[in-house]
Design goal:
Pfam families: GAF_2
CATH class: Alpha Beta
Strand order of the largest sheet: 3-2-1-6-5-4
Number of domains: 1
Shape: globular
Protein name: GAF domain-containing protein
InterPro entries: GAF (IPR003018), GAF-like_dom_sf (IPR029016)
Order of helices and strands: HHEEEHEEEH
Largest sheet: 6 strands, antiparallel
Bound molecules: methionine sulfoxide
Structural class: alpha+beta
CATH topology: Beta-Lactamase
Helix content: 25-40%
Radius of gyration: 14 Å
Length: 149
């Protein structure tokens, strides 16, 4: 990762592991990375593991507070257990729109014991904005969060 992204990661690593941890991660990512216009967590529901529930986020409120596994980009990432990048949401049929401003999205699963327990979701107002360092950073953050949850 480049120096700037390494610094962002270091500042996230240093955060207190208190109940604000996930919210603070969202705040830092949204503030520091220009093409991250909405940053949030979805977490697998304890009682029904087929549902992703919206957790802390930074950005416009979304109506998609509960998403079924397989549904939308979030649900597909959880189903396939891998990062799901959509550079142009117009080209994705299985997509849940939050706002017409959103042009692209990336979802990175959070694993515990090889199971998906949640995910980091990023929306961008630009087409195809995500670079390799974004994926590296988000994967490293997913590991930190996995240790915390
Ligand atoms: N676009 C997502 C829904 C969640 S919002 O981006 C916050 C999807 O298709 O799963």
């Amino acid at each position: 990762m480049n120096d700037r992204y390494q610094k962002i990661y270091n500042s996230i690593k240093k955060l207190d592991r208190n109940k604000e941890f996930l919210q603070n991660i969202c705040n830092i990512l949204k503030e520091k990375i220009k093409h991250f216009d909405w940053v949030g967590f979805y977490l697998i529901e304890e009682e029904n593991k087929n549902i992703l529930v919206l957790g802390p986020y930074k950005g416009e409120p979304t109506e998609h507070t509960r998403i079924e596994i397989g549904e939308g980009i979030c649900g597909q990432a959880a189903d396939q257990k891998e990062t799901f990048e959509v550079p142009d949401v117009r080209k994705e049929n299985n997509y849940l729109s939050c706002s017409p401003d959103v042009k692209s999205e990336i979802v990175v699963p959070i694993f515990k014991n090889y199971e998906v327990i949640g995910e980091i979701d990023i929306d961008s107002h630009e087409y195809d904005p995500f670079v390799e360092d974004d994926k590296k950073l988000l994967n490293k953050i997913a590991k930190l969060v996995s240790e915390y949850l």
